[in-house]
Amino acid sequence: MRIVRTLRIVKTVTIFRQLRLLVGTCIASIGALFWSMVLLMVLKVGFALIICQALQGYILDDRENLETRLLVNNLYGDFGKAFYTMFEVTHSGSWPSVVRPIVDQVDSWYAVPFLAYITLVVFAVIRIVTALFLKETLASAANDADMVMEDNRRMARDSQMKLEELFRAADDDGDGNLSHEEFVEAMSLPSVQGFLTSLDVSIRDCRPLFDILDDGDGLITIAEFCRGLMQLKGQARALDIVVLQRENAKLMKECQEIQRRVGAISDFVRSAR
């Protein structure tokens, strides 16, 4: 039981939620990681074989400079050396130090395959792999129910604070209530409309809105103001539409029942005459 309680505590602490997100992302990305490594391995092996074979003639040529031949041999003398060099080129960002000697001292035409490899693999493929892992991270975060709930609570708190600030700014006399005039005047300001738009609250006509927020006493309190605008925030949810449809259906049944009873009473009155 202690272990279970400890795990629950770990689950609720923010720092551990971030850790859980990282672990979950790594687990979810195992497949993408494997195939990314396979693709990069194939590209590195293929280019290492090509460049190793291409430079063998220069390394074995006694007419060339011995110091340069030794340098080229250390970098590309066999497949193992060439593969390790390509690993550095791909992942360490140190490709100028191992490419420049070949281009400057062996043959400038070697710049063509190296530039093609750097452009296609180091620039394009590596960034595609990075974007893939970023996508997995975002998907994992979106599927984390605890983090989604925490984000929703945080956004609700921020919106509540902003609406309270707006209410206090609109309350000219400072009595803690908004009259119809104060409300219409405040809601008509472009700055206020822009502020509400940033909160995802769309207001086309502020005059009927007062009647929606007001509980019937002709004044809007800060609680009514914040609660009402929070309910108007965003698009109508499917649940809201379903509830509205059910309420309309109930009203229709009640109206039909009233109509039936009124008809029965009317028939009774006629028969009594």
UniProtKB/TrEMBL annotation:
The chain crosses the membrane at residues 21-51, 114-134. GO terms for cellular component: membrane. It comes from the Eukaryota. The keyword Transmembrane applies. SUPFAM superfamilies: EF-hand. It is a multi-pass membrane protein. Gene3D superfamilies: 1.10.287.70, EF-hand (1.10.238.10). GO terms for molecular function: calcium ion binding; monoatomic ion channel activity. It is found in: Membrane. Its main location: membrane. This is Scn11a protein. It comes from Symbiodinium pilosum.
